[in-house]
Amino acid sequence: MDVRGKTIVITGGGSGIGRAMAQLFHGEGARHIAVADLNEAGARETAEMVHGAAFACDVSCEADIQRVVRETGEVDIFCSNAGLIATDPDFDNPASAPDADWARLWAVHVMAHVYAARAVLPGMAARRSGWLLNTVSAAGLLSQIGSATYSTTKHAAIGFAESLAIACRDQGVGVSVLCPQGVRTPLVTRNYFGGADVDGVLTAEEVAASALEGLREERFLILPHPNVANYIRVKAENYGRWIGGMAKLRRSVKEARMRANA
């Protein structure tokens, strides 16, 4: 999928990976970019950079996504990119997060992708052309130490994207999931990576470049951190060994947190 000449919607486009994708896609010749973000000021800043349109949008509200799509018109590529993180209040208890955190992350990481598909898939299928790019995370393929809410909802996001990819292939619509590890964006505060920085922390611009390459090659799984592919293989080959390795990593993360708070 070439972004040149395409109309693209990017949620979470007011900063971070979303802004980087908007700027890169604009530079590559996208026809029009609609930037949607809960932070309307950030959306406006990005839209000005790419001569696009800005929308205040809460992706957990289906009506907001429907409005963005309706006012944008025919959408060629929908980048469902908005995300957030909530840490486990008790680091030693993955069930310690309140129900409100579970509901909030489920709405943003799963239902927002569902709402986007509902909004654009009928038109794309009718034209037999279009692409859904869902920013997920390597946490959806592996895990996220210190945030069961994040890991679980990202796993669900992968599951929904797989369902989309399987069903949409014969309709002429493509699907990709963008799954980076540590990325230095406003989403990650106080240097919290929960072990996701073991292979280095990428810039938003580097992740955007990987997204563009993955779209061009029409890959389902886009991995800005190449080592993730090996981790997936190790997990599949010996789940018990992988759990043990993750438990060891968790101990090192816990020790580092204790030192930082000492």
Strand order of the largest sheet: 3-2-1-4-5-6-9
Overall pLDDT confidence: 94
* Shape designation: globular
Helical residue percent band:
40-55%
Secondary structure tally: strands = 9
What can be said about the biggest beta sheet? Answer: 7 strands, parallel
* Helix/strand order: EHEHEHEHEHEEEHEHH
CATH superfamily, please?
A: NAD(P)-binding Rossmann-like Domain
CATH topology: Rossmann fold
Structural class: alpha/beta
- CATH architecture heading: 3-Layer(aba) Sandwich
Low-confidence stretches: none
Strand content: 5-15%
Counted up, domains total 1
Q: How many distinct helices? A: 8
CATH top level class name: Alpha Beta
- Report Rg: 18 Å
How would you portray this structure in words?
With 262 residues, this protein is an alpha/beta fold. The protein has a single domain (7-226), classed as NAD(P)-binding Rossmann-like Domain (Rossmann fold). The protein has eight helices and nine strands. It has helices at 16-27, 40-50, 62-72, 99-127, 148-168, 204-217, 227-237, 239-261, and strands at 7-11, 32-37, 53-56, 77-80, 131-135, 174-178, 183-184, 202-203, 221-222. α1 links the parallel β1 and β2 (32-37). α1 (16-27) runs parallel beside α2 (40-50). The longest helix is centred in the middle third of the chain and has 29 residues, at 99-127. The radius of gyration is 18 Å and the shape is globular.
